[in-house]
Protein 1
Amino acid sequence: MKAYVYGADGAGISDVAQPKPKGTQVLVRVRACGLNRADAGMRKGHAHGAAGGVGTVLGMEWAGEVAELGPDAKGVKVGDRIMGSGSAAFAEYTLADHGRLFHAPSNMNFEEAATLPIALATMHNAVVTVGGVQAGQSVLVQGASSGVGLMAMQIARLKGAKLVIGSSTDATRRGRLKEYGADLAVDSSDPKWVDEVLKATNGEGVDLIVDQVSGKVASQNLAATKIKGRIVNVGRLGGTHADFNFDLHAARRIDYVGVTFRTRTIEEVREIFAEVHRDIWGAVESRKLQLPIDKVYAFNDIDKAFEHMEANKHLGKIVVTV
């Protein structure tokens, strides 16, 4: 089968053996894949958790059809339209654990379905399960113009947040954040953004920050969070190291929690997917929660898709069809 593989000379489309499902695995005939920032790093040889390196089939998110079931797989049957996340997505066939997928709603095509699994799982966990958002609270999403950022704002709004703030350093994308739930859009590269947040919250700061940027905004986040507020760190788009104001952290008594899928067990991931289904799946099926598709590429043009991502001018998801 055809797959997009990281090799000794970089990433490219190669012929590899079709995988065989074992245990609770499902073999998926992939029809579309969503691109993610981690894919761009792995394409350059970087590891993502335990995954990466020469010989790795790249990709983390897909939509397609069940082609075959492992002996212990439950909840799906051959021919079902599904979407999910896992390794080796950029291929004609991939394997997925039966607890790490969703049935694709009948009102979505494969391209639309491929945009959702990672955003839904990541941001429901960050905003609701870990972040504990409650109706009437205020939420700031750092890096809001990414696909997962747009989903975070929508989930916060769905759960009754009274004020949703999104950040983007790009003026064009910042201007579109209100389409996806933001009451206020701020530029996190402008030092005055904290003052804007404080003004919007009567000087108190927000109840919750979902932070995909970290780096240089880490201490600014502390100043923009209310006393006894919460910061959930879900990424490092702004860098992995920075100064951190420990005194401000203590003074404001902020809960600062890091989350990632890279160190979670399969049992933990299954529970996250199950919680998405229990809590917000009706909003997915009604299309209340959805992501814009910036551009769709054919599989043979996957390098062009990554070039488009690295140009950093897109809003929403870039999709590759297989």
Protein 2
Amino acid sequence: MARNPKTTGEHDGAGDTPHATRLPPREAIVEALMRLAAEQPWNDIEIGDIAREAGVSLAEFRECYPSKGAVLGGFARMIDKQVLDGASDDLDDEPTRERLFDVLMRRLDAMDPYKPALRRIVFALRGDPLSLAALNQVALNSQRFMLASAGISTEGPLGRVKLQGVVIAFARVTEVWLEDEDPALARTMAALDREIRNGERFMERAEDVRRLTAPFRALAQSLAEGGRRRRRRGRNDDRNEDEGNPLGGDPAAAI
């Protein structure tokens, strides 16, 4: 994999420019992990290897990240920043679909220098449910900002559904992108367009279901509130009885 033009400092390869600028430790660690992941299996990479590659001590590594996996979270935030920094208002008048397509394609563009590393990482973590659950939370945080950049709300009754749907859709598109060697990314763009359109149809159906079930939800909420009021009255009655009982209402207190 071609090195990022930014260097990590102390342990740079012979191909780096002699006057390159040293990265901040957090970014240096991310870049080091991605270089190592491009060259060897994920499970063979130790935190000591990353620290040496980044030119930082283990103490500095620990100050920045608690684990190797946490560095992937740092990578996601680095990509988030690149995408958000590159945002413009050129597409403000375009349909929502076009705005989201643009944001997610810019995210893939930002990820492109790390494609060999990501290919190995995705393969290694595919069968690890705990890691996938942790990465899903990282992806939720990232996509919240991607949707905001596209002018799409993630609040309201269906906000979480919308957000998780984009995470799943982007994961599917990423699988295609990792195997797409065409510089024009025709397969990737087709997959992204398809996923966005499927997501639109799903959200339309979800909104219809939400409207249809609104009366039932209101009735259930009313019944639940009535039950809570009755329970509060019952607790108040119990407290009144306890006040006249020297044992505090608990028979075992006499023992």
Protein 3
Amino acid sequence: MAFLGISGMQYSGEMFAGARIIVAEDSNVFTSMISKRLKELFDIDVEICRSFEDLQVSYDKSSDPITLAISNINLPGAENGEALEYLVELSIPTIVFTGTFHESMRDKLMAKDIVDYILKDNIFAVDLLAESICRFLTNHRHHVLIVDDSATARALLSSRLKRYNFRVSVAESGGKALEILKANRDIGLMITDYNMPDIDGFELTRRIRASIGSHELRIIGVSSSSNRLLSARFLKAGGNDFMLRPFIDEEFYCRVNQNLDTLLQIQSMRKERAVA
């Protein structure tokens, strides 16, 4: 079946029966809704853990790696967030599903390098959760190139993208980026800094657009500059999007998703026209 996410994500119908998904949640209503929806969409039989003890037993009883965990912040036996700490310490990718949220909590969650957080405060909560799970399970099909002359910036962006399960390549210069693109035609998204010593982001984008169109590669420009006109110049050079540092994690991931969603939609339309 085809699945169109709340945010516009298109899903071709791939099943994930081999994925091991743990749901650490004590609400019967939500565990039932999540189980039913994931089985319906992706043929996933989730493991339900209604307490911290259940979670520990579930991890210990099987040597099969946990693909992804969905966890409430507070569980019986772990009323102070111990379950989430447990999952993070085990390096298990985790989506937090919570009804309690405020700014300081959000900061604590993002500091733990979780995959995502979904709020239980609307009727679309389970569908949003399903979409987040689907993105994590399919992001490996996307190859992203990061171009930045700063090792720190490259490491930061790389870690963010790998957290979401993307395949990532890095280039320390515009010249190196051109080499990597030539050798890896499966790269669908490039995130490039503007200010680089050999080829700046504008010139790099112009050179790329001479042979690679937006139907093959999406380009997001980034900069720490306070010059608001940089975005206009970058878009005129052939870029698809532009962001100013420092990033907000949620906005960064949303922009990445939107550009890759657009790329898939364009490619799907071109295939349909070719067949017709």
Protein 4
Amino acid sequence: MSRISVRGFAVASATAVTTVGAVVGVASGAPQTSNDNNVEATAADTTLLADIPAGQQAQVQTASLTQQADAQSAQASAAAKKSAEEAARLQAAKDAKSKKESAEEKAKEREQEQIASRSATRDPASFPVQGSYTVEQVKAIARQIVPADQFQCFSNIVNHESTWNYQAVNAGSGAYGLVQALPGSKMSSAGADWRSNPATQIKWGLNYMNDRYHSPCGAWSFWQANSWY
């Protein structure tokens, strides 16, 4: 009769052996080999299949296969979780890149709109020269020179500096005109008629605000903080 054992059965749950139930057979009366010592040395932690009642042997083998299946399922779940996390990371990176590109595209569109708005404004030299101008006429000229999205900021500064009087003079400093250039002669870079032509003054004031503060709204922000610009 053969001596057959199920190695590790008795300690399967404690050692998490995935191959519980591996059969080791030693033929009775067979010549001893170098592996015999190894077989006998593990006898202490081995349950003989023959020692298990015949009615329970199928249950033992089924339990062993169930443990193997559970271990394989756990490994598969871990692999699936890792794969899902990696897919989520890649998708997040893709979404972030897409948002960045969209923001950059919108910024370019706004910049192009501003450029188009500025290029569509009227050249101050195209306005007919008059002997005098009302406040409403001066404002109408400004609306045709200053970009629409910057007009309110420009208007706020002019309201504070000269109340739209293109001939306004600061008695203390000598600042002159709509935007109170100091000295007023600075505006000659926009036209020799800077004393009497509001269009020339508006052109010079707009260029000044763009050069120093990037825009009339930038100039207005500075004015609010300092009461000058």
